Please model this.
Amino acid sequence: MDIKQIQDLIRFVSKSGVNEVSIEQQDFKITIKTNQVQTVVNATIPVAPQQVIATPVETVAHAPQPAATLVEDTSKYITIKSPMIGTFYRSASPDKPLFVNVGDEISEGSVLCIIEAMKLFNEIEAEVSGRIVKVLVDNASPVEYDQPLFLVEPK
Model:
């Protein structure tokens, strides 16, 4: 496979919407992984196989777990999740106030945060009315699609 074929394959994979493609032939292996932000190409040329020596693994006794831990009941709350991959921001800029804080009352359409994706700043609006119970992501942190951002107690 020459460089032109690899470039064509990368273009095809990025347009097709698949997340990963692996091709293995006699003299090489290529893996193309994509997401909405970047494309990674990993090509390897095989080397002569080496001898692998297995060694026994020691077992370790596990410490007993605490009998009961306090777990907060979140079943009565609504989780607001990220609609995209990007960077989570709680305010429009560092010198501006936060969009929402714990305890704030929100209504449908209220701006909760901004998610930056590919230099585009997307305002995330509330789809429910209620009170912010918990902010689940730190400011300026990367977020994944469908990652929980806020817990809301519905009205």
